């Protein structure tokens, strides 16, 4: 009866929109007590929109958008797409960058119209020996991106992202199943706190670089916790593989899907709770 019950569990999973890599996944799903949630693209839609533009000194808004948009056009990050699309909508066609480099968790750098341009978090500018724009200090609870070129901060762009419908319900259901929800993000603390408050999470790890997401999962495991991780990004792949159970958003990147044990096909976080319930019921049937 054992293989039959597992097959039924797997088949029921497919109906719910859960793809399971193998029957052994059910056992890890049953045991988890902590669920680490990536913010952008997992708890939030990841469909960001360009909002406000602040310029420093004599910089023109048009030039800021043209140079930042041109560089971000070469990146697939949700923040980059918002900047590139918003810039193109406001200033028209964007030039092609002469050089481009992605700096994971921090932003992008490259050359546009002969200028060395940086777009990203304050830390990206600091690491290049630049002072971040003072406008950043006045922005809280929104994702803010600094823009600099030729050694000087030139302005700030803000992008907004919305919490997904169903995220708060998903967090409540996961909690009801005995899992402690945790928010893990590379974004700033104030943004993380605003999202966490909206969905009902009180344990937050913010400003975590992509390579440190794995370390965060390991630290929780070292505390004796059995960790499920839900993520969508290239940045989340290693953490998904390290977690006791990796759940990938089907709407996310191939890297995340390959690293996960389970895929939530529609990218609906509520289905993560269904997965836990299903595996517990399937295994109870076997025993
Ligand atoms: P999350 O962990 O929430 O999925 P990421 O680790 O992908 O977020 O990114 C963390 C932060 O780094 C973003 O919120 C943004 O501030 C900044 N960032 C990353 N990539 C870019 C980019 N291409 N342009 C601007 N900012 C970026
Ligand atoms: Mg993400």
UniProtKB/TrEMBL annotation:
It is found in: Cell membrane. Belongs to the cation transport ATPase (P-type) (TC 3.A.3) family. Type IB subfamily. This is Cadmium-translocating P-type ATPase. The gene is cadA. The chain holds residues 491 to 777 of 826 of the full protein.
